[in-house]
Amino acid sequence: MSEGKTVARAAGFIMITMIISRILGYIRDVVIYAKFGQNRITDAYNAAFSVPDFLYMLLVGGALSSAFIPVFSSYIVTDKEKDAWEVASIIFNIIMILMVLGIVFGIIFTPQLITLLVPGFTGDAFDLTVFLTRIMFFQVFFMGLSGISVGILNSYKHFTAPAIGSVLYNLGIIIVGLVLSPFIGIAAFSIGVVSGAAMNFGVQLPVLLRKGLRYKFSFNLKHPGVKKIFALMFPVLIGLSVTHFNLFVNQNLASTLRPGIVAALRTGQRLMQLPIGVFAIAIAVAIFPTLTGNIARGEMQQFKKNMSLGVRSVIFVTLPAAAGLMALRVPLIRLLFEQGMFTHANTLATAHALYYYSIGLFAYSAIQVLNRTFYALHDTKTPVATGVLTIAINIWLNFVLLDILGHGGLALAYSLAGIFNMVALLVILRLKIGGIDGKRMLISFFQSVFASIAMGLPLYYIAGFLEKWIDVSIKLGQFIQVILGIAIGTVIYAVIVSLFKMEEADMVLGILKRKFKIKKRKKENV
Fold it and tell me: What is the value of pTM for the model shown?
């Protein structure tokens, strides 16, 4: 099987599980907001993720994965599996010790950390945030185990268990939250987060054992592979620290606004990230081992081809997704969340954030591929350097735009910074490796922009027209309005890109056809 088909098949499976995971994530949010509303209670729940997430991303989620997979993969593809597992064991031992220390420190000093993060929270809101944060810290341990496991399995080009784990994560939150919330309130969903994280790792462990898990109790910091990983990790650690500092600044500013804005921003960003999670991350994760293999074997032309294909693919899909989110923002959020304690005012606040977040959707999608392109080149300094500059711009824009657009200004600052980051990475990559198929990427980008605008503008007015003829005070009417809007928008975009005869359209259609044929064969063999 060719590398292109391997990547397409892996990406297709990851997309399916990502869709399921995102649907469960949506159900999780609907349950939480319907039960508790969008107020200081849910603000506290969302803020409670901040420090535990920072600890996980710092030690495993971003820094380790970006450095570990290229090194581990290079050992695997060059038939040095013994060295690969020795490096994995050493890294595991070090990370686990640091993680336990971080968890203990975080639990002890939670009140001081929350004071810095959300100074606008006082009284019961502050106490609740501290309590929920301390519960959330226990998820970090299981997420750390899972993060290392994902790095190993992805290096073997095994994506099934990690993808299923992401589904179980959200499922655990929903089940535990629903069962315990009548007794302990929103804390039940924090306990659900810990349970979901444990399930996420649990489903990966049997596969690790089948791959021939070779654990070794060693702290050999002089091993060449370990030294290489730490050298690659260090700049990423700096970048992630700065990135989270930016998130902390956003949350700090949002906490001073009216109750519910922290939750509105988080919900708006999650909706914006839906296409990123379903398409961009799926393609980027699937293509990363292939890119690292290209570099290990010295296949630079194939490397450039795969990179270009990845970038064009995610932009082709996410630009119309952004236009659709902007045009249907109010009907969509009303359909998804407006029920129970979630009011129409909450819908408008979330829609305001979603509109401005959507502007940067295509850029953050492309960054998923571009960052991994540099990591495959064993270059973690460039993404970090551009990231640090991007965050500085983001923070400056936060203060400039907050007074003009309210919490929408925080969302717009995030989008503009992402666009800068994407452009900077493309320019630097071209300087680093020569031609990157830039002409084809530019033509594809502008064709997608034109098609997305030509779809989005009429879609906005069509949605308003439908509202006059459909009873949107009930869920069925809201569903019909959104589904018709999505269907009309899809047809408009498909017609326009077919006139352009875009290669990306044929490629996406090809992936879908392959997935259908694979499913059909499986059914015939049953």
Answer: 0.71
